[in-house]
Specification:
mainly beta, Jelly Rolls, 2 domains, globular
Length: 334
Amino acid sequence: MNNSIKSIEPLGFPWATQDPFLFCVYHKDDYPKGNGKLGPDASLAGRNLGQDFDPSNSWRMYHGTTVPGFPQHPHRGFETVTIGEKGLIDHSDSLGAAGRFGNGDVQWMTAGKGVNHSEMFPLLKDDEENPLVLFQIWLNLPKKSKFVEPHFKMLWSEDIPHYTSEDQQTSVKVIAGSIGNTTAPAPAPDSWAADPANDVAIWIISMKAGATWTLPTADQATNRSLYYYGGSSAKVAGENLPLQHVAKLDTSGETIIENGDEDSKMLLLQGKPINEPVAQYGPFVMNTQQEIQEAYQEYQRTQFGGWPWPTDDHVHPRESGRFARHADGREERK
């Protein structure tokens, strides 16, 4: 294997990642027309509602029973970066914050000392299908930041820059990090990614058929993973990278990507490792098992602030556009 490639591995569910990331979930659901109540206009018979993850189906309800998605659930000790490439996501949380985002938007949420939130996928269109494509990336927090105040930040699609190669054949959506003079919006303030020295990058790479592009170098201590999730064929550093595989790359030298005869899509995740012990159980990521137990005990006592919404699977009114309402009352409307 080429020296710039550490390994090439098939993708599972969720996608395996390297420190400082914990994992990445890729959701692609061809949801049908809506039923007028933001759920699917289709029979739910035979589905394991509340635990509907069957990969043989073209769409899933996940933990939802009437609207697809993830009703209220807690997190502590890490961050979620939710990239809504297609379709919409309704966010509600225990701090009273809320939002509707998608179709290119990104929500960067720091769970910190603890937050309860829901992520529902409202099917707004009753006259046509409601496809959904999203990534949710779990980014760890170092021990010093495990108990920061919960926070979320919106990176609206209009504000996320795109790098374009000189030959116009490769475009990169720069969600975190930078390529040349193209720099992403600032992440959440307590993130591992907030310090440029940590070399965190989250890029969605789109390559035209037959395109060739060279990944820039990074610090040798940086972990870099390239996920190939859309297309037909590609090579990385001269090695075949099969569809639905990840290449773990050495960052000390440039790496050439050669695309095949169809347009391709790839996700790049990179960052310097936090290099601390990871204790994870369900929605909590701490440094020790004792801290995990303490997190559960505190959640049982406090529900991390309770739940101020009328239902566990709260969705916003159909007429709501893209918006974010923060815990301090500040609102953003798009």
